[in-house]
Amino acid sequence: MSTDYQQARAALGTRLRELRITCPGGRLTGAELAVRLGWTQSKISKLENGRQTASSEDLRLWAVATGHPEVHEELEARLRGFESHVRSWRRQLASGHRPVQDTWNELVAGATTIHEWEPAMVSGMLQTADYARHVFLRYAELQNSVRDTEEAVRSRMQRQEWLYRPGKRLHVLIWEPALRSLICPPHVLAAQLDRLAGVIGMDTVHLGIVPLHAPVKVPPANGFWCFDGRLVVTEDWHAELWLDDSDTITTYQRAWQTLSESAVFGAEAQHVIAQARRSIDGR
Q1: Which of 33, 36, 77, 105 is the most buried (most CB within 10 A)?
Q2: pLDDT tens string for the chain (283 positions)?
Q3: Domain boundaries, the chain
Q4: What's the CATH number for 88-281?
Q5: Is 0.85 topped by the overall pTM?
């Protein structure tokens, strides 16, 4: 988790403690509040010490139980403020992958220039429907989430219409192992690589491949997306991080530029993709 997120969660915990101590009916102990709410005392402690993220319902119940129902809106605002930066997959995928894809469609639609780094798979903006389908299935298995695969695929394909709008520009770097990763059957990957080779030369796409043998100045870490220099989105196994402070954005821009120095473009990128494609035929 980011430092900003931890600090915000700790500040919320401090506010929750204040509400418990200033209960109109008299100060409540943690144990007394736990009994009143039907929770464990450890949950009270974790929330107050910023070691657990409260849900919206937790905050509503806390406000009522401590005799401060009027502060629920304030607590909700605090929660929204820091959850906008760390979006857990558990919560995001509670209703399936389609709503997440729809949110991304809105984000992309409002952008003019996107810089993307993909170390593990082909960019979602350039995926075929079959490839995307297998990606969603794998993540649904991992997260034990709702399997709305076809709806999610349609939403992702809809997002790719952005590539055909004038004035848009996608600068994407892909690490060569992503071209060879069999997250899908070989014939699906082969078609995906054909699609990838076909976008080289598009006016709206600037595609670079970082070859496996290329020296890199920074470790090829998690994928990220930078939108118009105003927002960075990166992800880990547990969550997406939406980062909008200027120093952090500058760091990601510098990382992208550094990685691009190891990339090949145009005919050289075509060659790396073709090599990966031939390796599939040889299997």
Answers
A1: 33
A2: 444 667 788 899 999 999 999 999 899 999 999 999 999 999 999 999 988 888 889 999 999 999 999 999 999 888 877 766 778 888 889 999 999 999 999 999 999 999 999 999 999 999 999 999 999 999 999 999 999 999 999 999 999 999 999 999 999 999 999 999 999 999 999 999 999 999 999 999 999 999 999 999 999 999 999 999 989 999 999 889 888 778 889 999 999 999 999 999 999 999 999 999 999 986 6
A3: 3-84, 88-281
A4: 3.30.870
A5: no
Count of residues for the chain? 283
* In the block, residue with structure tokens 């931890």: 6
Domain 3-84 and domain 88-281, same fold? Reply is no
Task: Return the CATH number of 3-84, one of 2.40.50.40, 1.10.8.80, 3.30.360.10, 1.10.260.40.
Answer: 1.10.260.40
What's the per-residue H, E or C state across 92-131? HHHHCHHHHHHHHHHHHHCCCEEEEEECCCCCHHHCCHHH
Q: Who's near 91: CB < 8 A, 6+ residues apart?
A: none
